[in-house]
Amino acid sequence: MTGLMAEKNREKSAGGAAGENPRRPCPCGSGKRYKACHGAGDDVIVTRPFEGLAAEPDLVAMREFLPSALAPLPLAKAGERPVRIATVLPGASAALVRPDGEILLGMQVQTRSGDLSADVAKALRWAQEAEPGTALPVVGPGLTGDVVRLQDVLDADAELDLVIHPDFAWWIPDDEPAPEITATVERANQVIMPTEAIGGDGVRAAYWVDTGSKAHLRWVRPEPEDALMAALARLSAAGELELGEGSRYAGAFRAHGLLVPVWDLDREMHAKEWGNPAAAFSTKLDQALAVTSDLTAAEHSARDALAGKQVTLR
What we know:
Largest sheet: 6 strands, mixed
Number of domains: 2
Radius of gyration: 21 Å
Strand content: 15-25%
Order of helices and strands: HHEEEEHEHEHEEEHEEHHE
Shape: globular
């Protein structure tokens, strides 16, 4: 995994409006009152920070395991400067503003609060006011003032037009970079694991990665965990959990409120060869998700076995 997962304490949000009306709903979307959530002054962890955004699965992938990727950020109200979101920026910065004014926001950062959505929105606000050529090394710890989140500034129905790069050459904005910048890029390139998006009908946020010893398919799913686990259990009990010959279901991990099933794959097969099998599996999974009857005894047993193969990323 390439995500930089350093945990920092969140300081109390100190906005005048929030202080005047502590009974208002918290803007993080938790459903709690502000006073009992982000206004509490404690370590507040938003377990599903990108909920409600169509881009949620891609944002989770960019935060957790995609090495080098970029996408235009679908703002609800476009500003004067173009904005792109990236997996990681030089120095794991939260944001930088290029000399031409373009804003880049980083998902994998040095320091974070308990609300990734608010962190990225805060970095965006800083970058929109920063001078060209400025880098913002960290977001926090702590969010001051009124809490603004990605849900407040993005087009909620827009998915990310994600481009995965084989290296970090895009870090360099000109043709003749300084030697130290070139060396930084070369060091970063050495730790990249080959990664590609898996295409196919009904296939989204599914990524092939070669770790050097194994190849995997990591598929960020947007469904509620209970519904997804029940569907996977039905497929497992029916012997249909694999993606075809050369694949094996390895387990799943939770990341930012979503479940990410993982399959081991035959390293001799090219990433593009998994598009059709993934599309076929997507159809079967949709059918299993539509079933509303109780699990059978065999399916319950399969669900228990699958639950034993899950981990949670912190």
